[in-house]
Design brief:
single chain, mainly alpha, 12 helices, globular, disordered N terminus, disordered C terminus
């Protein structure tokens, strides 16, 4: 029996899986084990292992979570991994080159500049990968953006861990805490912002070419502002209200806004996929055999 349109959709729908949860649990166990061994043995060779696992665990889990929920997207795991690598490396290199040029001191204006610079830097890896295939599915942009953003977050966390190690005079405990905190907070940061921007960029593509319109520019400005608020809001709140829970509440609100917008983009991406793969009722009506067609066939016999 020839497969119908409905059975074809069922066949290409990726099965739901909990690989992200297994990756998180396995990685967390390895992180705890390596950290305990580091403190027990005082073996400096374990230090890079602890930092790498702590920096990459949550970003990899985050990307896996969205990849398993790609719905009808045919995006391959190798392409997603490439976006993770390209987005991380190109993003860090571009940000390291541009920030010293445009950021001279730390203030509200410079924090906003950092947001625009880093959101531009992270999308470079996605643009490089998208040259090799048709890029007009919002879901593909969302996944590739999440991968690029999380690649950037993982490498940035590794850099912060090394910086804190030097600044603390070689304190391993301080480095472990910095790595752990940045890992926990990473889902509401770089991965979410780049996923939002890339999803809109792909959605607005025309005939396989990127189309920069006010929606794309608006998405870029939105994520850059969210980025700037995430970086600068703690300082602003501390200056006016002093240190306290208000800082965490403010960042929780910014992070929640980003996740909510990303959830809306993901729901929209699923709806657009269904519109592409499901025939319009008028098309089904035109392709269905009519009574006149049946009569012609019978007369022909």
């Amino acid at each position: 029996m020839e497969p119908t349109h409905e059975t074809q959709l069922i066949q290409i729908r990726p099965p739901k899986a909990n690989g992200w949860l297994r990756a998180l649990i396995t990685g967390f166990i390895l992180y705890i084990a390596s950290t305990v061994l580091l403190f027990l043995t005082q073996n400096p060779n374990l230090f890079p292992t602890v930092v790498m696992i702590g920096s990459f665990l949550v970003p990899v889990t985050y990307v896996t979570f969205f990849y398993e929920r790609r719905h009808l997207s045919t995006l391959s795991i190798s392409t997603t991994l490439t976006s993770f690598i390209y987005g991380g490396i190109l993003g860090v290199l571009a940000a390291s080159l541009l920030e010293p040029i445009f950021v001279r001191s730390i203030n509200i204006t410079s924090v906003l500049s950092i947001g625009f610079i880093e959101e531009f830097a992270k999308i470079l890896g996605v643009l490089l990968i998208a040259r090799r295939f048709r890029h007009d599915l919002e879901m593909d942009g969302l996944i590739l953006g999440a991968a690029a953003g999380m690649g950037f977050a993982a490498l940035e966390s590794t850099g912060y861990a090394f910086t804190s190690f030097l600044a603390s005079g070689g304190s391993v405990s301080t480095t472990v805490v910095v790595t752990l905190v940045r890992g926990i907070l990473s889902p509401v940061g770089h991965g979410t912002w780049t996923a939002i921007f890339a999803s809109v960029l792909f959605r607005e593509s025309k005939e396989g070419r990127f189309h920069i319109n006010y929606k794309v520019v608006g998405a870029y400005v939105l994520v850059a502002v969210l980025h700037a608020l995430w970086d600068g809001l703690p300082t602003i709140i501390t200056d006016y209200l002093g240190p306290g829970p208000d800082v965490f509440i403010g960042q929780a609100i910014i992070g929640g806004i980003g996740l909510f917008i990303l959830w809306r983009r993901w729901r929209e991406a699923i709806r657009l996929q269904q519109q592409v793969t499901t025939p319009h009722p008028d098309v089904l009506a035109e392709s269905a055999p009519t009574l006149e067609d049946e009569n012609i066939t019978l007369d022909g016999e």
